[in-house]
Amino acid sequence: MNNMKDSSDIDFAIRIAGEGGDGVLSAGELFAQAAARTVYHVFTYITYPAEIKGGFSMIQIRIRSGTIHSMGSSVDYLIVFNQEAYDRTIGDLKEGGMLIYDPDEVKIKDDLKTKFYPIPLAKIVMDTVGAKLGKNVVALGALGQLFGIEFGVLEKLIKDRYGDKGSDIIENNLKALKAGYEAGRANKWEQKYNLVADTQAKVHYMLISGNEAVALGALVAGCRFVAGYPITPATPIFETLTNLMPKVGGRAIQLEDEIASLSACIGAAFAGEKAITPTSGPGLQLMGEQLNLASMLEVPLVIVDVQRGGPSTGLPTKTEQSDLKFAIYGTAGEAPRIILAPTSVEDAFYQTIRAFNLAERFQMPVIILTDQSIGYRKATVRMPDLTKIIEVDSSVHSDDISIPSPEKIEIAYRIEANPKELNGYKRYLDTVDGVSPITRPGLEGGQYLSGGLEHDETGKASYLPHIHSQMMKKRFKKLEALGKALEKNPPEYEGPEEAKIGVIGWGSTEGAIHEARLLAEERGILFRHLQPKVLSPLPERQIRNFLSGLKQVIMVEENYTGQFAHFIKAKFGIRPIEIHKCEGVPFTPEEIFNGIEKVERIINEENIARL
Amino acid sequence: MKRTLQDYKSVIEPVWCPGCGDFGVLASLQKALLTLDIPPENIVTVSGIGCSGRLSHFVNTYSLHGTHGRAVPTALGAKTANPDLTVFAVGGDGDGLGIGGGHIAHTARKNVDMTYLLIDNRIYGLTKGQSSPTSPYGQKTKTSPYGVFEDALSAIPIFLAYDVSFIARANGLDSKTLTQILIEAISHKGMSIVYIFSPCRTFPVLDSKGLKAMLQPLPDDHPREDKLKAMEMAYCEQPMYTGIFYQVNKPTLEDRLQSVIKKSWDMGNKGEEFSLQQILHSFA
Question: Does the interface predicted TM-score (ipTM) exceed 0.95?
Answer without folding.
Answer: yes
